[in-house]
Design brief:
Blueprint: H1 3-15, H2 19-41, H3 44-60, H4 71-90, H5 122-133, H6 138-149, H7 154-161, H8 165-188, H9 198-204, H10 216-229, H11 301-315, H12 319-324, H13 329-342, H14 346-360, E1 367-369, H15 382-386, H16 390-399, E2 428-432, E3 437-441, H17 450-463, E4 469-473, H18 482-490, E5 496-505, E6 521-522, H19 531-535, E7 540-549, E8 558-563, H20 570-581, E9 585-588, E10 602-605, E11 612-615, E12 618-619, H21 627-630, E13 636-637, H22 643-654
Parallel strand pairs: 3-4, 4-8, 8-9, 9-13
Antiparallel strand pairs: 1-11, 2-3, 5-7, 5-12, 6-7, 10-11
Helix pairs in contact: 1-2, 2-3, 2-4, 3-4, 3-10, 6-8, 7-8, 11-13, 13-14, 17-18, 18-20
Length: 655
Amino acid sequence: MQQNEQITDLVKRAVKGDRDAMSDLYTHTCQRTYRTILGLVRDEQTAQDLTQETYMAAFSGLDRLEDPARFQPWLISTAVHKSKNQLRSAKPLLFSELEDSAALEEFPDARAEASPEISLDRAETARIVRELLGELNESQQLAVELFYYDQLSTTEIARSLDIPQSTVKTQLHYARKKLEAGLRRLQSKGVELGGLTAMGCFGLLRTLPEEPILPRAEAEAIRSKILSQTPVKVAARTGGQLLRGALGKVLLGVLGVAAAGGLILGGAKLLRSAPEIGDEQPAQTSSAQETGETEALSIDYGKDFDGLWTVLERDYPFLPFLETQGSNLETVRGYYRDQAAMAQTTDDYVTVLGGLFDNGLKRTGAIRLITPEEYPYFFLFDEFAEAESAAAAAWAAVLEDPNLSPLYQKPEPGSGEAAAPYGGKQPFVRWYEAEKTVSISFFDCILSNAERDRDLVRMALAEHPEAENLIVDLRGNAGGDFEYWKPVLLEPLGGDWSWSARAFYRDTPITAPFYADFDAIPVSALDEAPAWAADLRLDRCFSMELESHSNLPETALKRWVLTDNQSCGGAAWLAAFCRGTGWATVLGSHTSTGFGLGAVGVLELLPESGLLLQFGEAVETPDGGLDAETGVLPDVSCNPKQALETCLSLIRESK
C-alpha cells in the first residue's frame, strides 16, 4: 500500500475512534510535524509541547477534515497555527523579507515536472540540494517546504498563513531565482550538475532523507499523552472546508534588532503583518481604547510621519541601497503616510511604523523604535547618569526631552529594577557523549543576564572535563550586545583576541553628536574604501574594536558557532568576531542583514508623537561586504535547520 493510501485508510479508521490508527498516524507524521514547529519556535521543549497540542487538536477535530488524503497538509496547518499562538504569547516577532510582488509573473505549479532524472551520485546530489536550500532566507524556506514538501497549494499556504497569495508566489519565485543563481555559480566552478535544475532541487526535497530530530523517548512520551488525553469523538463528515478558518497569521521569519539589551520594534501589536504595496487593504482604524491615551487623538500622525521621512532621507544611510534593490520608495512613502494619517492612537501608529521598517524598508540595516518596556533600561548605564562622553550626553538629552511621549516612563531613582523585563530565557545545554561535545543554545544575550549565564557555561564545562568541542548555537538569537559575550564565553575560555571592523555614517547635524567620541575620518581620506560607501553617500568612517582579554590560558576546546538569518545584533557580532579572528568555525547560513547598532546608534525624537527612533551605521563585514546586504557569511554553508547535525558530523569525521 502506498503511503498516501495508508494515511487515508488510517484517517478513516481514526475518525471512527480507532486509537491504534491514531497511534500509527502519529508514528508516520510526528517527525515532520515536530521539525516544522521547531523551525518556527526555535526551542525544543516548546516544540515538544506544541507537537502534543497539535495532535490532540487534530485527532479531536478529524471530522472537520473533508479529504482524508490531505491529512498531512491539514496537520501541518494546525501545527503552524499552534506555533503562531505561542509566538504571540512568548515574545514580539515580525514578518520578514516580503518583496513587492506587483510585477511578479504567475507562479506555475510545476511540482509534477520537478522530478527529473539525476545522473549525479545520490549523496552528492543531496549535499548540493541541501546547501542551495540553506542559502534561502527563512521566509522562502518555509514557503518552499509547505509547497513542495507538504504539498500545500499556494492558495492553501496563503489561507494558512493569512497572507496574500501573491506573497506566497513571491517567496517561491525568489527561491527559484536564488537556486538558479546558485546552480550557475556551481557550474562556473566546474561542478558537474548532471542536468540538475532549480525545479529539480524542489522536486528532490521530498526524497531527501531526514534524520529523526524528535528523540525516541520524547516521541513515545508524547504519543502516550495524546492517546490518553484525546477524547474519542465519532462523527459523520460535516462537509466542512479543508482548512476551515482555524488558521491565522504566522511569521515567515523572525527579526530582532538589538542594542544594549534592546527589544525588537513595536511591542504592542507586532504580529500584524504589513500589507504589500499595491494590495487593497482595509484601513487601520481601530477605535481608541480607554487606556489613558486620550491625548493621542490630538496628534497629527501624518505630519509626524513626514518628519520621520525627512530624517530618513537626510540621515539614514540605507535608502539609496534600497533603491538599488528595486524598491519604489515613493510608493512606500505614500502608502505608509496614508496609513499613518488614519491612525487614531499611538498604538495604531506604532503598528504602521512596524510595517514600514519591517516590510516597506525590508528590515534593511538597524532601524527601530525604542519601546516603552525597554526605555527604563537605558538609565541603568552609568554613562547616562554621568554624561561623561559626548555620545552619552547626546543620548541623555533625547531620553529626557520634555516632548517625549508619555508612553515612556523613567524609573524611580535607585530602583535598579529597569532591567527586570529582560530576565529572559537561560541557555540550554546538551551533552553529546560520542562526539565529546557540549552544545549551548543562547537566547537572551543581554548584559543583565551575563553573570547568570557565565555561571551556567562554567558549570556545563566543569561537568564535562573530557569535552573536546563546544558548540555555540545562535540560531534564532534575536539580538543582544557583543559585550555580553566577553564575561559569558570569551574570557572563561581564555586567551587574548581582538578584531577591528570599520563603520560608516552620513555626517549630519543629527548624527554628528552621537559619533563625536569616535576617531572618525573622511571616507575620502581612506586608502581603500568599499565602493558601497560612495554609493550610499557615507562620508565618515571609524573603527570599532571587538576584543577579549583573559588571565586564563586559552582552552583546547575546538569551537563551533551555528547561525541563521535570524541571528542578529550581538549574535551577529559574535559571528563576525569569529570570522575575523578564527575564534570559532561558523556554520549555517548568513546572519540577519545588519549587525544592528554596532556602536551607539543615532537616537531621534519624532516631532509630533514623541516616539524614539533609533538607527545604526553601515558596517563592513569580514568579507568586505555591506552588513545590511549580506550579513555575516558562515565558514561552512549549510541548511541552518541541519547545522547541528552537520557540525556533529564534521566533528566525527575529524576524529
